[in-house]
Write a structure and sequence with these properties.
Elements (H helix, E strand, L loop, with lengths): L2 H13 L10 E4 L5 H12 L6 E5 L10 E2 L2 H11 L6 E10 H6 L9 E10 L18 E5 L3 H7 L14 E7 L5 H11 L5 E7 L5 H5 L27 E5 L14 H8 L9 E6 L13 H10 L9 E6 L6 H12 L7 E6 L2 E5 L2
Parallel strand pairs: 1-2, 2-4, 3-4, 4-5, 5-6, 6-7, 7-8, 8-9, 9-10, 10-11, 11-12
Antiparallel strand pairs: 12-13
Helix pairs in contact: 1-2, 2-3, 5-6, 8-9, 9-10
């Protein structure tokens, strides 16, 4: 929404306040229109709207290096909006801002429950202050962080992180670059989230320079090399985590003899203490082939063996999401179930092709 559009909406709301409750989301673009008008409109709207999603976009930002600066005056306007007893969701995309401004955004938020940061980075600032006690502030219930810089992930994992209280966090989604080692920072954030966390989704992406060559990689040894050892997650502080979704090689495509891929088996084998996971969701790119029947399906049995250990006492369902449409899915289902037959696993497998699913085993 541009500044003139914001101004017109403000006037409309003043003339027709009965439509306020029907407005759920406003997208605010910082690149278009005079900044003063945008700030004034945002301040006025924050005192009127009951529900508002603020999304600061930056047109033309296609990579991590193409961001727009969020001025301190606009940061202050957003912070004022978050201090109102109405706004429950904030989304920031393709921006950079001063560290102190980022922390101050959330210091007086009253009802913020959903936070999404995509391609956001912070720059050093003078006069940074130490974080205060946040335990008395309302807690955020859902956080999505996508391709943010290490400073932001590090702050989320600190005892008093950038003005955001994660003690009530229930859902966490992290999208990170496979070329950067962020596993330790992710575990720090999981420790900060604590016992309320119920749903965790991790997705790894390649840098833009890798996308073309990896998308056509069939045997995927090069595609999954950065994550060949999987990811080691410490869920000791998350006893109520019931759903875990992993998509650690989105550009890789696997022939039947390499499914489940090595990163799946390596990740599962690194769980040494019992976890409360009831549903495990794995995104895997399986290449359609007429040679499915002749393939070696022993990896399915290895996965079932890893999931049958004492580390997964609560597991009820394993969902395999085939990222590409597979014509021969019924054959894949049959061969997978035959591979784990005899293990008497207490959980079920669901292999999904697009929007279709079929329950196997159990």
């Amino acid at each position: 929404m541009t500044a003139p559009q914001c101004q017109r909406l403000r006037e409309l709301l003043i003339r027709s306040p009965y439509i306020v409750s029907s407005i759920k989301e406003v997208t605010f673009d910082i690149d278009i229109g005079p900044l003063d008008d945008c700030i004034g409109a945002l301040d006025a709207m924050a005192t009127i709207l009951r529900f508002l999603k603020l999304e600061v976009l930056s047109l033309g930002a296609f990579s991590q290096n193409d961001k727009r600066d969020l001025p301190p005056v606009l940061c202050a306007a957003i912070a004022f909006s978050l201090s109102q007893p109405s706004i429950s969701s904030l989304s920031l995309r393709c921006i950079t801002l001063a560290r102190i401004d980022f922390r101050n955004l959330f210091m007086h938020s009253q009802t913020l429950r959903h936070l999404s940061l995509s391609n956001v980075s912070c720059r050093p600032s003078d006069g940074e202050q130490s974080e205060g006690d946040l335990l008395s502030q309302p807690g955020i219930e859902e956080v999505v962080v996508e391709l943010v810089d290490a400073d932001i992930l590090e702050w989320f994992g600190q005892a008093h992180c950038c003005g955001v209280n994660l003690t009530c966090l229930r859902s966490l989604t992290i999208v990170f670059d496979m070329d950067e080692a962020r596993h330790g920072l992710i575990n720090d954030m999981l420790r900060k989230a604590g016992p309320c966390l119920e749903d965790l989704s991790l997705r790894c992406v390649s840098g833009m320079s890798h996308l073309t060559c990896l998308s056509s990689c069939v045997d995927s040894r090069e595609a999954e090399r950065p994550l060949k050892d999987g990811i080691c997650l410490n869920l000791a502080c998350n006893p109520n985590l019931h759903s875990l979704r992993l998509n650690l090689a989105p550009n890789a495509r696997y022939v039947a003899s390499r499914c489940p891929p090595k990163w799946v088996l390596s990740t599962l084998e690194q769980f040494h203490s019992p976890v409360a996971i009831k549903e495990l969701v794995l995104d895997i790119g399986i290449v359609d082939s007429m040679s499915f029947k002749r393939a070696d399906y022993s990896r399915w049995r290895h996965m079932a063996t890893a999931l049958s250990r004492s580390s997964f006492p609560s597991l009820q369902c394993v969902r395999i999401l085939a990222t590409d449409y597979i014509v021969n899915l019924p054959l894949v289902e049959d061969l997978a179930i035959q591979a784990i037959k005899g293990l008497a696993v207490p959980w079920k497998i669901e292999i999904t092709n697009n929007c279709e699913s079929k329950v196997l085993g159990g």
